[in-house]
Each structure stands twice: as structure tokens, then as C-alpha cells.
Amino acid sequence: MWEEKLKIYDALIDKCPRFKRKGKTMPYTSANGYMFSLFNKAGEIGIRFSKEVQKKYIEAFDSSIYTSYNAVMQGYVLIPERMWEDLDTLAEYLNESYDYVMSLPPK
Question: What is the pTM for the complete model shown?
Fold first, then answer.
């Protein structure tokens, strides 16, 4: 089950040529010194946004803040599985997240 969901996460990242997936046991994407997406051990995808955008998307997606390994991931939105079928739209959100972290001061 986890491996099947990981294939979806990888397919999503494959639609975004500006970055690659990292991590073997904890798959994630990062740029500019910041992680901006994460695939946790529960098989959930979280994408990072600014506080304002996070609030907007939690409401729009009827979702919540993302948690990973029992930690609340500030700035991350849990991407509901019902949205995983439209990888093109999800890729737009992931690219928006990439643009957000690239706008932050480098770490």
C-alpha cells in the first residue's frame, strides 16, 4: 500500500522538471535549503505554502495541517487522497510551493 502511494508521489514529482525527489526512507523535495513536500510513513502527501496560502488551501481542499512522524508540520497542507487522481493540478500546487521556498532567503 505504502509503495503504491509512493509511486503516485513519484509520478507527481516527475511532472515537475525543476526539482527531484530526495530521501529513501522519508521521501521529500527541497530547494533553497527548505523542504517543500513530504511523503510520510502513513502514505500521506504534504505540501508547504505560506501561512496565508496554507489557510486558504486547508479550507479549499477541506483538509488540515500535515503531520509527519507525530510532528505538526507548520506551513504544510495535507493533500487529500481524492485529489491524487489529478496529478496535473497537483503539480501546479507543487510548483507553487517550489516558487514559494525559492522566494525565501537561502538557508
Answer: 0.96
What is the residue-wise DSSP string for 37-50?
EEE-TTS-EEEE--
Alpha-carbon gap, residue 62 to 60, rounded angstroms = 6
Q: What Rg value do the Cα atoms of the chain yield, rounded?
A: 13
| Cell 530521501, residue located | 23
**Beta strands per DSSP E along 40-103:** 45-48, 65-68, 71-79
- What 3-state class would DSSP assign to 5? helix
Query: What domains appear along the chain, each with residue ranges and CATH number?
Result: 2-103 (3.30.1460.30)
The per-residue pLDDT for range 42-101, each reduced to its tens digit, is: 999 999 999 999 999 999 999 999 999 899 999 999 999 999 999 999 999 999 999 999
Residue 106, all three cell numbers = 537561502
Burial group, residue 73, by CB count within 10 angstroms (0-12, 13-18, 19+):
middle
Range 33-43 average pLDDT: 97
